[in-house]
Specification:
Layout (H helix, E strand, L loop, with lengths): L1 E6 L7 H4 L8 E2 L2 E2 H11 L4 E6 L3 H9 L1 H4 L1 E6 L5 E7 L5 E6 L6 H7 L1 H4 L4 E5 L2 E3 L3 H11 L3 E6 L7 E4 L6 E5 L9 E2 L3 E3 L17 H8 L3 E5 L4 E3 L3 H12 L10
Length: 259
């Protein structure tokens, strides 16, 4: 199953760093948060990624173009014809497809633009700025058993996000309301499993995935929540970045499932 990561936004709420680089390239522990997200999926055996690029997307392309060098010990021998010796290679078993989905394209439009790379297959979908210790295998199993078009990981981070109205018995999402002022509810934490029928709910580049498509799917009973009570944290602001960096430096990063 392919993993689609939305990595094209402007990251305006963390402009201290995003004016220099796309938000998914902001580093935690010396590696972009995008790398951390991919490592989470890789831990569960999902190693094929489609990354939706937009703002400063060339920087993400350059990162992966040089990834082999970033993760290897190398000798450059300028006395012998500028030779290069690779001493060891610890790069990941990843296949990464980087797609320019437009500078101003909305989230739904970005997903629509990568349809040909997905085909008629189920896929994963998440945002390029959030980490979690969610069990991906359990999430997929739950999705398959739920018989819906989308299962999203629902988390409870506090009061600055929109809320999901979840049926307590079925875990079907009865209403999707993005960015309200309510406090303490379940919110969309990303880490979704998506059926290809969802492409039909996205009209064009200007479609915001979190509005019409998800709202319509919730009304049709085709949107389910996988409630995750463990760790989840997005990197929306500089404060969030400092928190994640502190957890990593203190070896207390719950999302670090790999060795």
């Amino acid at each position: 199953m392919k993993v689609v990561i939305l990595a094209g936004g402007f990251g305006t709420r963390i402009s201290e760093e995003s004016h220099l680089k796309p938000k998914p390239m902001i580093e935690i522990g010396g590696q972009p948060i995008l790398w951390h997200i991919m490592k989470i999926y890789g831990y569960y055996g999902y190693n094929e990624f489609i990354i939706c690029l937009g703002y400063k997307g060339y920087m993400i392309k350059e990162y992966f173009a040089d990834y082999y060098l970033h993760t290897s010990d190398v000798t450059f021998d300028f006395t012998n014809g500028n030779g290069m010796i690779i001493h060891n290679n610890v790069s990941e078993p990843w296949k990464v497809t980087l797609i320019d989905t437009g500078l101003h394209t909305m989230t739904g439009g970005r997903i629509k633009r990568i349809r040909k790379y997905i085909g008629n297959e189920r896929f994963m979908l998440t945002y390029g700025d959030g980490v979690s210790d969610v069990n991906i295998n359990d999430l997929v199993k739950y999705h398959i058993e739920s018989d819906v078009y989308i299962t999203m990981t629902a988390v409870q981070p506090g009061g600055r996000f929109g809320v999901l109205d979840i049926d307590d018995k079925t875990n079907r999402i009865k209403q999707f309301v993005e960015k309200s002022k309510e406090d303490g509810g379940w919110i969309n934490g990303g880490f979704m499993v998506v059926e290809p029928q969802v492409f039909g709910y996205i009209e064009n580049d200007y479609t915001v995935f979190e509005k019409e498509p998800l709202e319509k799917l919730s009304k049709e009973g085709k949107l389910s929540a996988y409630k995750h009570n463990g760790f989840w944290q997005c990197m929306d602001t500089q404060r969030d970045k400092v928190l994640l960096e502190k957890l990593w430096e203190e070896n207390r990063a719950p999302w670090k499932l790999w060795e």
